[in-house]
Model the fold of this input.
Amino acid sequence: MEFNNRVITTVDVGEFTVWITETHVSTWAVMAILIALALVVRIALKSFTEVPAGKQNVIELLVEGFDNFVQSTMGKENRGFGKWYFGIFLFILAGNFSGLINLRPPTADVSTTLALSISTFVIVQMSACLRSPKKYAKSFFEPFIVFFPLNVIGDLAIIISLAFRLFGNILSGVIVLGLVYYALPPVISLAVPVPLHAYFDIFAGTIQAFIFTVLSLIFIKNKLPA
Done:
C-alpha cells in the first residue's frame, strides 16, 4: 500500500534523468479527456441553432451559468477572468474524478496544486498592477506603512492557502480509500467502497474544485482597485 507519488519509469534526456510519475500519467489522461471534449464541443458548435435543444442546452447552461457566476462575484467588467477559471475548474474537477477510473488524482500531488495556486497568485498581482500601478503599490502600505510586511505575507499566503487546502482534501480521500481497499478482502472491496468513491471523488471533488475557483476569483476581486 503506497500513498506517495510512485515513479513509473525514467527517461534520460542528455545528462538529465526525467522521472515519469503517477501524477504525470494522470495529468496527461485528464488533459487528453478535456482536449477531446473541447474538440467535440467545437464540432458541435457548427450545428447550434437559435433555439437550443439537447446537448446545446447542456453546453450553454454550463458556459452561461459560469459566466453569470463570475459577473455576480467580480462584476461585469471582470468577466474576462471567467475564461481562464472555467478551464481551471474543469481541470481540477476532471483531476478529482480521475480516481473513479483507478488513477491517482493529480490534485493529490502538492506540485500540481502549487502550480495552480501560483498561477492565481501571478494573476492577482499582475491584474492589480496593470489596472492601476499606483494603487497597487500603495496597497502594500495600507492602512499604515508599518503594515507592509503583513500585507506582503498576506499576499504570499494565497499560494499556501489555495495549494494546501486542495492538496490536503484530495490526498485524504486517496489515503482513506487506500486503507479501505487494503483492509477488505478483494471480493468485498469491489462493492463496499462505492459510496466512499461517490463521496471523496464526486462530492468532495466537486466541492474542492468549486472552492478553489471561487477563492481565486475573490482574491483577484479584493486585490483589484475599486
